[in-house]
Design a protein that fits this description.
Layout (H helix, E strand, L loop, with lengths): L1 E8 L2 H9 L22 H13 L7 H12 L10 E9 H8 L5 E5 L18 E3 L7 E4 L3 H24 L4 H4 L8 E9 H11 L6 H14 L4 H8 L1
Antiparallel strand pairs: 1-2, 2-6, 3-6, 4-5
The structure holds flavin-adenine dinucleotide.
Flavin-adenine dinucleotide binds next to helix 7.
Length: 239
């Protein structure tokens, strides 16, 4: 299970420009002649951001543009955050793929099709089996006391089903039907393209402690990939 970077478009400045075009204005990263507005309520936060950027030789937004991004995020003005787009290559077991696909607005996905491929599917192995949570309708608690034998059981049963799938395909059964025998633990891959706004919503919801552990891990990977490309917008949208 993983999220891998493919490519991305835009940056924090794109968000600012999308907002400022309302007034036919445009912004630039600051240069050495720039004098920040020390009276801005965002000055101290901006200074921390600017100092880190200088150290890493990265382009820096003005304090006004930094503050604008905070304002847009705080007031739910999401369209400027829909201009930057990111493509990822994802791999996850079927139920986690299904959870990802519940996020519809601002995303497109194309996934591998077991109508057209008949290679042996890869099984997702959980690191451990967790116990059912005692007082919750959903979720889980710590490691189950018999996690290790259940992992061996899971692997045996699933690999047997996958062997059955391979045998059916080798005997000429259509892959689009043979796939019905596959367990939920097989991994599927998809290309996932979405806006900065959409991925931030996904990460916000799926890093929450109520989300399933596996999708929390995946959302955390997505977080780590996207944060460096849009540091100000990402922080404002996901905090
Ligand atoms: C912990 C957890 C448990 C969950 N359990 C279940 C479950 O048991 N069963 C299940 O089916 N799903 C479940 N979900 C999925 C959940 O119901 C959402 O479908 C999913 O989280 C996507 O969120 P979203 O609707 O905000 O995203 P999107 O579909 O991307 O929508 C983004 C936003 O656009 C707006 N929007 C979208 N569609 C419309 C519309 N038709 N009309 C008006 N506004 C719209 C809403 O403001 C929405 O928040 C669960 C999610 C979580 C995080």
């Amino acid at each position: 299970m993983h999220a891998q970077y493919k490519d991305h478009m835009g940056d924090d400045l794109r968000v600012v420009d999308a907002a400022r075009v309302s007034f036919a204005n445009e912004s630039w990263y600051i240069n050495e002649e720039y004098v920040p507005d020390k009276n801005s309520k965002h000055f101290e936060a901006w200074l921390r951001y600017a100092l880190v950027n200088v150290r890493h030789d990265r382009p820096t937004l003005s304090v006004g543009d930094f503050g604008l991004i905070q304002f847009l995020a705080e007031h739910g003005h999401w369209t400027p955050f829909a201009h930057p787009q990111i493509s990822l290559r994802m791999k996850a077991p079927v139920p986690i793929r299904t959870q990802c696909f519940k996020h519809k607005q601002g995303f497109v996905e194309n996934e591998e099709s077991r109508r057209y491929i008949s290679s042996r599917p890869e099984l997702f192995m959980p690191e451990e089996f967790r116990s059912k949570a005692a007082n919750a309708k959903q979720g889980s608690s710590g490691t189950h006391s018999r996690s290790t034998p259940w992992k061996a059981f899971y692997k045996d049963i699933c690999e047997e089903a996958i062997d059955g799938y391979v045998a059916m395909v080798e005997d000429g059964i259509a892959p689009e039907q043979a796939r019905f025998i596959l367990p939920q633990g097989v991994q599927v891959q998809w290309i996932w393209t979405g806006s900065l706004a959409a991925f931030a919503r996904f990460v916000r919801q799926r890093t929450d402690s109520h989300a399933q552990g596996e999708i929390q891990e995946l959302a955390s990977d997505v977080n780590d990939i996207l944060q460096p490309f849009y540091p100000i917008s990402w922080e404002a949208l996901t905090r």
